């Protein structure tokens, strides 16, 4: 027997909800009940408890996405599940089509090494603060950068302080003394060793990241890999990613070739050579590079946040690794999985057409202003009129709020948000901030925030502590 769903709504949305459900042609039975309120978004659990007298034999109830209150308690009182639907009615088909298949973004296999490039110029407290920020953004390992010809007398103390707070640590230097001192202070990884400096691995316990002896020389990298395998040591391989117009395409080919030659080897990609050295928004760069990492099973990246335009690169990499892992596991495109990397645009920015806004306006009987967007521009309406423009300044003379400073300020803020959303092709919802994806950190309940969660397989720390064989032999 088909499921029977009861949809609760308000006066203004009732007609649109019925039309949306009819067009969906769902495989469940449905009924719409208007609860006697004008705006569906103002519905609360207590209001439903007072006004809903008969559920009509429904198997579950769907309420507006912005309905406030404790729905678990309401479900217990009514004896059937009560669930929030989407915020916008136009998203209802997608809500039902994907509700049971929403990808799990709590899992990933790629680990982020976040480099503190200017570590020698920071004191211990400064390094720890930066490390905590990077960890909050998703970093798994804190990489301590050592600048050429720059004294770093407190490097060993910095490594010890990070280890005392439970961080995994790597030391990144061209000087062999720095690598040895860092490892003896407790560093877990060393960036980077070539076949000419592999003798360091005989003296320290840290896992080396291997690079070619000369740039692009994969034969020297092969020899270094063979020596580490003969020693039974853990290692990670980095063929080196080059910037655009300085060998980028060839470097991608190198990664592919190294994976072909060494299908089981752990690999790293230093994504900063693209995110830092390309003046464009970094979210798309991270998505593309981590897509390559996902295809080649590259399980480590080295990320940096030096340039101002790259200040959310680690957070973006964290979201990208989750999206790419989910897409690969589900054998699907990395599309319609999560919108966290879509900072500037959205899939469906305009839920209402100009005609539907006109229909909504004709149903309004109160003086409160509604601000909406459509492909035609910005719209503001109340019972006294509907006005449309592309610039908020064209609307202000028609609103009659010159003597009401608070109301004028509120409408100015909302119209400015609406204009930004309309120009970029983003979703605008009155009284809600614009959604900038993972570019803006929002503190949420950890149970619903798709950021800080468990990796798909063992963490780097667990793998280092529990593996019976070298890291390079570990499979996800």
Note down, in words, how this protein is organized:
There is one protein chain. Helices cover 38% and strands 15% of the residues. The protein has helices at 11-24, 45-51, 71-78, 92-98, 124-137, 155-164, 176-184, 199-203, 218-231, 248-261, 272-275, 282-296, 313-329, 354-363, 392-395, 405-424, 460-466, and strands at residues 4-9, 29-34, 60-63, 82-84, 111-116, 141-145, 168-172, 189-193, 207-210, 236-237, 268-270, 300-304, 370-374, 377-382, 385-389. The chain has an eight-stranded parallel β-sheet with strand order 10-9-8-7-6-5-12-11. The protein is built from 17 helices and 15 strands. It folds into three domains: 4-98, 3-Layer(aba) Sandwich (Rossmann fold); 111-343 and 460-467, Dihydropteroate synthase-like (TIM Barrel); 354-424, no CATH class. With 476 residues, it is an alpha/beta fold. The two termini are 42 Å apart.
Strand order of the largest sheet: 10-9-8-7-6-5-12-11
Q: Report on the biggest sheet.
A: 8 strands, parallel
Distance N to C terminus = 42 Å
Q: Average pLDDT across residues?
A: 89
CATH superfamily of the largest domain: Dihydropteroate synthase-like
> Which outline best applies?
elongated
* Number of spatially distinct domains: 3
Number of strands: 15
What is the helical fraction, as a range of percent?
25-40%
Please give the CATH architecture of the largest domain. Answer: Alpha-Beta Barrel
Radius of gyration: 28 Å
Q: Please report the first level of CATH classification, the CATH class of the largest domain.
A: Alpha Beta
Strand proportion: 5-15%
Low-confidence stretches: 444-458, 467-476
């Amino acid at each position: 027997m088909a499921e029977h769903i009861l949809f609760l709504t308000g006066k203004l949305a009732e007609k649109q909800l019925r039309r949306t459900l009819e067009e969906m042609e769902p495989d469940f039975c449905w009924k719409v009940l208007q609860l006697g309120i004008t705006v569906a978004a103002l519905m609360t659990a207590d209001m439903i408890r007072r006004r809903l007298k008969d559920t009509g034999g429904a198997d579950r109830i769907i309420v507006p996405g912005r309905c406030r209150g404790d729905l678990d308690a309401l479900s217990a009182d009514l004896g059937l599940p009560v669930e929030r639907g989407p915020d916008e009615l136009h998203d209802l088909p997608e809500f039902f089509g994907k509700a049971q298949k929403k990808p799990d973004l709590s899992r990933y296999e790629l680990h982020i090494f976040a480099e503190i490039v200017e570590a020698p110029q920071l004191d211990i407290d400064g390094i720890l603060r930066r490390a905590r920020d990077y960890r909050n953004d998703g970093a798994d390992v804190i990489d301590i950068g050592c600048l050429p010809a720059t004294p770093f007398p407190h490097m060993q103390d910095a490594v010890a302080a990070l280890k005392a707070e439970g961080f995994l640590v790597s030391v990144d230097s061209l000087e062999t003394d720095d690598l040895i001192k860092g490892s003896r202070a407790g560093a877990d990884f060393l960036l980077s060793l070539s076949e000419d400096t592999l003798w360091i691995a005989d003296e320290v316990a840290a896992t080396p990241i291997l690079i070619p002896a000369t740039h692009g020389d994969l034969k020297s990298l092969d020899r270094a890999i063979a020596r580490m395998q003969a020693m039974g040591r853990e290692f990670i391989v980095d063929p080196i990613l080059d910037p655009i117009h300085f060998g980028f395409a060839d470097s991608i080919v190198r990664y592919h070739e190294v994976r072909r030659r060494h299908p089981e080897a752990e690999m790293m990609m230093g994504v900063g050579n693209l995110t830092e050295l390309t003046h464009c928004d970094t979210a798309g760069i991270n998505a593309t590079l981590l897509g390559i990492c996902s295809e080649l099973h590259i399980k480590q990246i080295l990320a940096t946040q030096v340039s101002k335009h790259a200040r959310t690169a680690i957070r973006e990499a964290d979201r990208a690794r989750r999206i790419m892992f989910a897409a690969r596991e589900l054998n699907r495109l990395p599309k319609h999985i999560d919108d966290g990397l879509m900072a500037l645009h959205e899939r469906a920015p305009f839920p209402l057409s100009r005609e539907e806004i006109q229909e909504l306006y004709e149903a309004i009987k109160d003086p409160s202003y509604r601000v909406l967007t459509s492909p035609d521009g910005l719209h503001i309406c109340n019972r006294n009129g509907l006005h449309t423009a592309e610039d908020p300044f064209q609307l202000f003379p028609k609103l009659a709020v010159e003597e009401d400073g608070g109301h004028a300020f509120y409408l100015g803020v909302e119209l400015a948000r609406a204009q930004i959303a309309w120009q970029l092709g983003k979703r605008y919802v009155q009284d809600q901030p614009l959604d900038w994806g993972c570019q803006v950190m929002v503190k949420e309940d950890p149970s619903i925030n798709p950021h800080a969660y468990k990796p798909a397989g063992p963490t780097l720390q667990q793998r280092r502590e529990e593996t019976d064989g070298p890291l390079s032999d570990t499979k996800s």
